[in-house]
Specification:
The protein is α/β, with parallel strands linked by helices. It has 17 helices and 14 strands. The strands form 3 sheets. A 5-stranded parallel sheet has the order 2-3-4-1-5, sandwiched between helices. Helix 9 packs antiparallel against helix 10, helix 10 crosses helix 14 and helix 11 crosses helix 13.
């Protein structure tokens, strides 16, 4: 199978280029999610003149940004490294890759944006973790966008699933009608592959080319080794051990019945709390490795104004990497359909990842330790409670208790091993992979502003 890495970020890049008021674009995200490949393809295919400055592979490029940061001076120095590069408005692009390795280049985005002769895209991983206070941010002259590993739809594209097939699935999600059994079976198969593989391009490429779990795990192991190396190289000395221990504890944290992050489980110490580990966890989040699901004090709008400071769950941003950390035995169990292998942790992480990649903040609600919902979502102004059911029991006691508590809940959603349906109590049931199509579950609000006096 030929691997084709079609990414949604390309649409973002094209939209940015068509904006007449565009400033510099900064694409940030974890290492190895495909930033360089995607931006390089965009630049090569869309511009006549292109200069790619990778500050990690070629640290000598940093010398360009010593001294004057005037746009004309910078472009003259760049031409010394790229003799064929020409600064032609609308036809020239600079790609400042791994910009975190050259803080002065980040500062230079302002004069380059003001000059406007060349388009400028920058990418960065570990942004903000290693500048050491040497950075002047180009406020107002850069647009920041995040890039994650491949989402489920991008994964389907990579495996050659036609757009029309995917749109048919979206249509069923949108209309809340069952999928044909053959379609459901095929999509469940792809979803199992996605859970095992994740969205890291190297892992997806290994699946597409070999269809072998061993090759996939080898690619995942390389990514995890790179993350551990980043901790060693970039985390402050006083935090290195805590960051590594927090990272290593994520699978076990999710394996418990209550997945709320427990600080005593990080290093086996008693009487420890958020004060000891907050910075280490924030480091993992800023590095694009971990995702927080924060607890709500009450499930009312605006949800993000009701977040508790002390209670949260920690997921891996890529479920395939979580699978790799859980060991080969767990992966083989999932591959063979064994429901005894930490399936609740894996399913919740996978659904959380898909919701997050749809732009949904990850939030949950817990009341006095007696009731815990998996996710609380704001879907176009409606409050929805979502539960992940990895087993055969479709009943959700937490959802029932929440409905009896008096809070206004507009929609109840269950992601489970089932087809799409709405039961007699109004609970919407979806296969877990449908979380990837969250944007088809509600109508986006109209944000246009009518001229004065019109209604």
């Amino acid at each position: 199978m030929v691997f084709a890495m079609k990414r949604k970020m390309t649409d973002v890049l094209n939209g940015w280029r068509s904006d007449p008021n565009r400033v510099c674009l900064l694409v940030e995200g974890a290492r190895q999610v495909g930033k360089t490949y995607t931006i390089d393809e965009f630049a090569r295919s869309g511009y006549r003149h292109y200069a790619h400055l990778d500050f990690v592979a070629n640290p000598e490029y940093a010398s360009i940004f010593k001294g004057s940061l005037e746009a004309r001076d910078l472009l003259n120095k760049i031409s010394g490294y790229f003799p064929s590069f020409r600064a032609e408005k609308g036809e020239s692009i600079l790609f400042l890759d791994e910009i975190q390795a050259c803080p002065e280049a980040r500062t230079a985005l302002k004069p380059l944006a003001v000059d406007g002769t060349v388009d400028v895209v920058a990418s960065g991983s570990l942004l903000g973790l290693s500048y050491g206070g040497r950075l002047t941010l180009p406020v107002g002259y850069e647009r920041r966008v995040g890039m994650r590993s491949m989402d489920f739809e991008e994964f389907l594209w990579a495996l050659g699933v036609p757009d029309g097939y995917i749109e048919g699935v979206r249509g069923c999600v949108r209309e809340r009608r069952p999928l044909e059994e053959s379609v459901l079976s095929r999509m469940e198969h792809f979803f199992t592959q996605y859970v095992l593989t994740g969205g890291m391009p190297r892992a997806v490429a290994a699946l597409a080319s070999t269809n072998n779990l061993g090759a996939v795990r080898e690619a995942q192991t390389d990514v995890i080794s790179g993350y551990r190396g980043d901790v060693t190289l970039h985390a402050p000395d006083h935090m290195k051990t805590k960051v590594a221990k927090c990272f290593d504890s994520i699978p076990a944290q999710l394996g418990r019945r209550s997945k709320k992050f427990r600080f005593s489980d990080v290093e086996g110490k008693k009487n420890v709390g958020i004060r000891e580990y907050e910075d280490a966890l924030e480091w993992l989040y800023d590095a694009g490795i971990a995702e927080f699901c924060r607890c709500l004090t009450q499930p009312v709008r605006p949800l993000e104004h009701n977040v508790s400071d002390g209670a949260f769950k920690v997921y891996m941003k890529d479920t395939g990497l979580l699978m790799c950390m859980m060991g080969q035995g767990t992966a083989i169990g999932v591959l063979n359909g064994d429901r005894s292998v930490s399936e609740g942790a894996i399913a919740e992480n996978a659904v959380g990842e898909m919701l997050s990649k749809n732009g949904a903040p990850l939030l949950y609600y817990e009341r006095k330790g007696k009731m815990e919902t998996d996710f609380v979502l704001d879907l176009g102004g409606e409050i929805a409670v979502a539960e992940v059911k990895s087993g055969s029991d479709r009943r959700s006691r937490s959802m029932e208790a929440l409905m009896d508590s008096g809070w206004r809940i507009d929609r109840r959603i269950a992601f489970e091993k089932s087809n799409i349906s709405v039961d007699g109590d109004g609970v919407e049931h979806y296969p877990m992979f449908c979380a990837a199509f969250l944007d088809s579950m509600f109508e986006a609000p109209d944000l246009s502003m009518s001229p004065r006096g019109e209604r």
